[in-house]
Design brief:
The chain is mainly alpha-helical. The chain has helices at residues 9-20, 26-33, 37-91. It contains three helices and no strands. Keywords: Coiled coil.
């Protein structure tokens, strides 16, 4: 015996985003998508805790990206300096 229709996690996230990010009312979104308002309220409460985790992960990733970009810039500058030094010493007669 089935307990009802199952929806994917992506569907739930997109439905909740319409309410939280785009400003539509819960009843409007529920009617448009053919789901109950109760389900949408439930999904919103479920995903509110997950959203904090996702934001924290995104923040951690942006910090990591910034560090890697800074390191790449430093290493690129060091490489350019070494290239110039190699050309200088290669052009010097002994």
């Amino acid at each position: 015996m089935s307990k009802g229709k199952r929806y994917t996690e992506e569907f739930k996230i997109e439905a909740v985003k319409q309410v939280t990010d785009r400003g539509y009312s819960v009843n409007e979104v529920a009617e448009r998508l053919g789901i109950s308002a109760k389900s949408l309220y439930h999904w919103r409460s479920q995903l509110s805790g997950k959203k904090a985790v996702v934001i924290r992960q995104a923040s951690d990733e942006s910090v990591k990206i910034a560090k890697l970009e800074a390191e790449l810039k430093r290493v690129t500058e060091e490489r350019d300096i070494l290239k110039k030094a190699a050309r200088y010493f290669a052009s010097q007669p002994e």
